[in-house]
Design goal:
Helix content: 25-40%
Largest sheet: 14 strands, mixed
CATH topology of the largest domain: Aminopeptidase
CATH superfamily of the largest domain: Gcn5-related N-acetyltransferase (GNAT)
Shape: globular
CATH class of the largest domain: Alpha Beta
Strand order of the largest sheet: 5-6-7-8-9-10-11-18-12-17-16-15-14-13
CATH architecture of the largest domain: 3-Layer(aba) Sandwich
Order of helices and strands: HEHHEEEEEEHHEEEHEHEEHHEEEHEHE
Number of strands: 18
Distance between the termini: 38 Å
Number of helices: 11
Amino acid sequence: MRKVGERLRREEECRERVIYRGRLDQAFDPPQPLPLFPSQAGAQSEAFLERQRPWIVDELDLQGIVFALAGGDSGAVGKVLRGEGLGVGIAHVGPPMLLIGPWGRILETVVSYPPFTARTLKPADVPAALEFTATAGIHGVYVSNVLHSHPRLGFKVQILGFDGGERLLGLAYFGPRGNLLVLQGEPSALNPRAAAGAILEARFSWRIVLAPHELVGELVGLGRLATLVDREQIYYSVSRGDLIVPPAPATVDAAAVRVAEKKDLDALMYAALHLNQSDLHVDPWCVDRDWLKRNTKTRIRKQTTFVIGSPGKPIAKLDLGSVGPSGVVIEGVYTWPDQRGRGFAASLVAAVAQEKLVDHPRVCLHVAASNAAARRAYEKCGMAEAGACQLMLRG
């Protein structure tokens, strides 16, 4: 009895790891694919599945099992093909179709939402996707840099393309930190409700989204999502010829900009927690401190965090969220409360922008439309409004 209970518990854990939303309808070992779902294949296939389940649960993290998930009727016919030389299988089920590989990683998904089909980008799609990001303006800089740095895509890059047949109508990038960015070309070309439905059906994991206002509204409505934040964001951008370096604050020594170092770790973690609480309404007690520490250390090691202040006692900081051929995206701008109103944020942003514009065409960021103080600081640097989008953080 104890063994049965343990097995059921582990099987439930298996389901929770692999399935973001939906139901496990079929599981199999790629070298022995099943031709039909159990409901249509009869008792023989059901017995085969029953024999496979213990092995699947035991070996999930070691072997990489392929799961076929049915998005429609559980009785739908599914044809399973082996992925030759890949160690994965291809499951055609409708709709959607999912290809899931080692450690439950979704390798490909195809969701049909006429007049477009949403499907995972492949390396051959990258040139067209790069052309599309150029039409999305500042909103496309982040995704463009991702495509430039990962032209072969791979397991770490999950991008859903909205394929209209003759051309791309939109892109949805699912980042490793739970961030979702949705790009569209002509507003009338991509139906917001259909795009939101495709994103929800795709089963990729995400927590925070930047997308057109109407599409975010449909995501919330169709998914019945609880939200912590749902607001308008304004994009600011500056190019080399437009940059203005404002006068340094009165305390010149403190205004010296430098790359963050190990001594700044604790202070930067405090800043991240306080910024999440004040800007995104995330309670500090809800943040995984181990994850935050690793993430902050990584930024320090990669030299993507810049600060003003002496080692261990920064008074202002910012992070580089993306750096690439399309430009630099600044994020996480923060001034310690007792130092605000003295021009440190504007001085820091301008100094970093001046350095990065030597090798990059633009520096940009986005900020809450209601944050008047931050917007004034960015305008002091010569930054100008370059668009708007909606930010939504799920509860």
